[in-house]
């Protein structure tokens, strides 16, 4: 049963005052799947359903709703239910929600929370979006180095309800500085009286609160970690980023890079629920800007109007030649953008890669040059064949070199290289292609 | 110290017969970082270094080398070292390596392995590339439902060395069919004499061996799992896919989609180590094909040569108009391609999204139409202004609708929708744009 059909079933059950039927329809389903179905329902229905679940399940389902739907729900939830929900939420999700609350909601909620939770929310809310601090949770388990394995396990048992993962624990000194990590695996394999100092792993991989969430996700992926500890400027442990959150970051970053490559401003969220207004706003800026960018190509053409008018066959090859530059450029740019994003390639590799790119581009240019030479001969004679084949070689070479260098240039200027693939490189390659093509044409034809 | 500098240091240390110096330089480094450095060294140096590590570390480092380097090394490793390495490797990595061995290497190795390992390799090698079976490992921990929590922990302790993750265990019936999953967390929190039947979670999320590795990775990401069990056609447990492998799949899939979008044939592996020959081969096919695709635009132009020759000012707007169609199309296509890839959107959403796309495209088209109308007026008078602004509206609308539908069409035809963004949509939109532009121009100018 897909989630729209299911949503309809639920709506009918609630309308018929049959909440048990509704619950039955959702039995055994994963929280994220239930949340997806709830997103298809009207707000009152989804509120009513949410309140049917016991608190643990309600919290899990709530956590998978979109932030917008969470906000809508919290504004109509009864106060008591709101407080119990917020207390039960994982610290990182709670902080994300809290950031979006208005003053009145904050004032309702804060006094109802314990001092510890209030401080925790304030702290987690204080880190800027996109930083490791904004991604981390404060619910980790910490131990001391002089504990034994047995007492560590006992301590983990007591803390279990308040931690996101039991599988990685962190050994801290008296100033809460991180001195080692310990996996539950090592802990249950160890003799019960082994001190943690002997079991723990150091040096410890860690991130700073100010690091980008992207670099944290990359580290978790690279080192196959379950969680990465996050430290403040005094090397004190302030939180952990778990691998499921890192996976979400990896997916989101890839999506944003795709969108940027096609000149869609980010973030756009779920495409399915995006409004017409949002899509228009995110797309129009670059489209209009690229129109003006294309004026360079137009101006290039205008400069050669006489020669074009005298040799109208030249126009036949125009889209073919300029597009080839754009296509070759888009290939090079995309290869670089992705390699930079995954960390496969870094800034200092540029020169080495440029040399190789030259060789590849010359080979490609020659191949394509041969392919169009015959077309030129067929449609316009030897002069045109010479013009289109030599233009093709230079245009492909130029397009590739611009395409491969632009991501590095943007990176250097601290802009996102992802913007370099797609329409931007196409527009630049177009203008360059027009100049090369008609420049060569005017030289050859005037001889 | 970056890894090229470090590689140089290591080479010098080995040359000076100072292996201890080399080991010291690598002390405390993560296996994946050591592997990256080893990839920068000549083969004999990397072999020598690898043999300096004790077996556990050697196996970890070896596992992070590229498959090509692994093959090179295995062909020069002493037989004894090769056998101990292969035995120590995780089952999934071992099977991937084994698939690439030649007959002689297989014949050297197989007799040295235990029957169990031989069967395991044969089984894992039998699943096709890109399937859940090819991604999974057979090293999971399995328990029986009538065990107590305490005896389960004791059993896990014994098996620990042979399992990839202790944190998820699988409860099987007498036919090895999966009846429930159990997290180590629940296990250590439970009273020691609780039977597993009471602790385990069911229904169980699982995959079939024949499922695509992409869908398995998506499930692990969606449900925040540490591992997903993989079943054969009789619902017997045959392996698990762990979340770190799922993360790799997510990253690889995104990379391949980027490359496909720019018409680079996949897979291309690491860009840094790709050869000129490989890059040429992966790029040339589509570039040449697109040249011939662009002949449609050329033919379109040729059909209108007279009207162009008589109104040469029209050429000025050609790149601007056709590129706008391509750009709008690339935006729509990219949004759809990514939403389809992440599962945000599915096939049956097409009609609903098409309606919304129409509204967005009309708004975009009108905006851009207004932007070029003034340019048209300025350069060619009211006739040209009418032609370029009405062409722009239709071209943007057409480009967007083609761009948003093409990924669905490719998906329907069981082709990868990722190919739809970038150069392909640009070429199609170009040809459509030429026809629309000169078609309208000839209508207006002939009046």
Structural features, described:
2 copies of one chain form a homodimer. Chain A has 447 residues and is mostly helical. The first copy, chain A, folds into 3 domains: 3-127, MgtE N-terminal domain-like (MgtE N-terminal fold, Alpha Horseshoe), CATH 1.25.60.10; 141-250, CBS-domain (Roll); 294-446, Orthogonal Bundle (Tetracycline Repressor, domain 2). Helices cover 68% and strands 6% of the residues of chain A. The first copy, chain A, contains 22 helices and 6 strands. Chain A has helices spanning 3-15, 19-26, 31-40, 43-52, 55-64, 67-76, 79-88, 91-100, 103-109, 115-125, 132-135, 149-159, 184-189, 196-199, 213-222, 243-261, 276-293, 295-303, 305-310, 313-342, 350-412, 423-446, and strands spanning 141-144, 168-172, 178-183, 207-208, 227-231, 237-242. Chain A has a 3-stranded mixed sheet with strand order 1-2-3. In chain A, a hairpin with a 5-residue loop joins strand 2 and strand 3. In chain A, helix 5 crosses helix 7 and helix 20 (313-342) packs antiparallel against helix 22 (423-446). Chain A is elongated. The interface between A and B is large, with 110 and 110 residues.
């Amino acid at each position: 049963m897909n989630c729209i059909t299911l949503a309809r079933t639920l709506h009918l059950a609630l309308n018929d005052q049959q909440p048990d039927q509704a619950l039955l329809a959702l039995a055994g389903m994963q929280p994220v799947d239930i949340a997806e179905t709830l997103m298809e329902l009207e707000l009152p229905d989804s509120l009513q359903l949410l309140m049917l679940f016991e608190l643990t399940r309600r919290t899990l389902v709530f956590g998978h709703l979109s932030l917008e739907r969470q906000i809508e729900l919290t504004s109509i939830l009864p106060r008591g239910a709101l407080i119990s929900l917020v207390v039960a939420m994982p610290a990182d999700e709670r902080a994300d929600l809290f950031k979006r609350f208005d003053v009145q909601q904050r004032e309702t909620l804060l006094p109802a929370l314990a001092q510890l939770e209030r401080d925790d929310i304030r702290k987690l809310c204080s880190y800027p979006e996109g930083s490791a601090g904004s991604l981390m949770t404060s619910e980790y388990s910490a131990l001391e180095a002089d504990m034994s394995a047995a007492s560590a396990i006992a301590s983990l048992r007591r803390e279990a309800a308040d931690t996101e993962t039991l599988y990685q624990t962190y050994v801290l000194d008296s100033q809460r500085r991180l001195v080692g990590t310990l996996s539950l695996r090592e802990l249950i394999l160890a003799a019960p009286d082994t001190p943690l100092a002997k079991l723990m792993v150091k040096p410890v991989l860690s991130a700073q609160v100010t690091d980008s969430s992207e670099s944290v996700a990359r580290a978790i992926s690279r080192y196959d970690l379950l969680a990465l500890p996050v430290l403040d400027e005094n090397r004190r442990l302030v939180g952990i980023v778990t691998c499921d959150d890192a996976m979400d970051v990896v997916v989101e970053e890839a999506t944003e890079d795709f969108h940027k490559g096609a000149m869609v401003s980010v973030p756009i969220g779920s495409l399915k629920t995006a409004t017409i207004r949002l899509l228009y706003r995110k797309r129009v800026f670059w489209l209009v800007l690229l129109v003006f960018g294309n004026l360079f190509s137009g101006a290039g053409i205008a400069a050669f109007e006489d020669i074009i008018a005298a040799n109208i066959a030249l126009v036949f090859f125009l889209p073919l030649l300029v597009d080839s530059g754009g296509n070759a450029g888009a290939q090079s740019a995309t290869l670089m953008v992705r390699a930079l994003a995954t960390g496969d390639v870094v800034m200092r590799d540029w020169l080495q890669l440029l040399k190789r790119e030259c060789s590849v581009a010359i080979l490609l240019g020659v191949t394509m040059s041969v392919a169009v030479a015959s077309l030129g001969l067929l449609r316009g004679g030897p002069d045109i064949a010479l013009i289109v084949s030599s233009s093709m070689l230079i245009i492909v070479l130029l397009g590739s070199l611009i395409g491969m260098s632009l991501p590095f240039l943007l990176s250097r200027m601290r802009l996102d290289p992802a913007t370099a693939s797609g329409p931007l490189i196409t527009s630049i390659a177009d203008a360059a292609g027009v100049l090369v093509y008609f420049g060569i044409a005017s030289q050859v034809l005037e001889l």
